[in-house]
Amino acid sequence: MSEAPETSPATSRRTLLCGAAAVLAAGGTVAVTGCSSSAGSSEKSSAPQGPVDLGPASAIPEGGGKVFREQKIVVTQPTAGQYKAFSAKCTHAGCIVDQVQKEQIQCPCHGSRFGIADGAVQDGPAPSPLPAYAVTVEGGNLKVTPS
After folding, report:
1. Which residues contact 111 (CB under 8 A, 6 or more apart)?
2. 3-state secondary structure the chain
3. Mean of all residue pLDDT scores within the chain
4. Measured between alpha carbons, how far is 127 from 131 in angstroms, rounded to an integer?
5. pTM of full prediction above 0.85
6. CA-CA distance, 53 to 23, in Å (whole number)?
7. Is 87 in contact with 71 (CB distance < 8 Å)?
8. What pLDDT, on a 0 to 100 scale, did the predictor assign at position 49?
9. pLDDT in tens, 31-50
């Protein structure tokens, strides 16, 4: 009796970890970040509904921005007095972006970089731009309405 040669490709670390998580989660619910290579999900967004007050507009540096991690929103100021708001959830694997530097919104997970003026992908594996949100300044405070 002879053994059949192995013809299946080597298992990736991601596949192995996701499989292990699924086994451990038997009978329960688990969310495993990084098991998907894209953010294409049928889940409803956990973004806040309605206008969100993010505090003083003066906290957003010109040519930079600020990540509001709890609200999953990033606000930038590409030019003086022009504010832009985006989802802080990276379109690659759903990680929350962590900083705005060198006129780019930066994701710590896999190196995706997005433009501060339009949320467009400038580098990395992200497949699409960050979703844009409506932002206004009322009484000196930023009001962002996630879509």
Report:
1. 123, 124, 125
2. CCCCCCCCCCCCHHHHHHHHHHHHCCCCCCCCCCCCCCCCCCCCCCCCCCCEEEEEHHHCCCCEEEEECCCCEEEEEEECCEEEEEECECCCCCCECCEEECCEEECCCCCCEEECCCCCEEECCCCCCCCEEEEEEECCEEEEECC
3. 80
4. 12
5. no
6. 42
7. no
8. 75
9. 333 434 444 443 444 556 78
Q: How confident is the model at residue 74 (pLDDT cuts 50, 70, 90)?
A: very high
> CA geometry: angle at 44 spanning 54 and 91, to 5°?
70
Residue type, 122: Q
Which of 50, 53, 54, 51 has its CA nearest to residue 68? Answer: 54
Using alpha carbons only, what angle is made at residue 81 by residues 79 and 87, rounded to the nearest 5 degrees? 75
Cα–Cα distance between 90 and 15 in angstroms, integer?
21
Cα maximum dimension of the chain: 82
Rounded distance between C-alpha atoms, residue 68 and residue 60, angstroms: 11
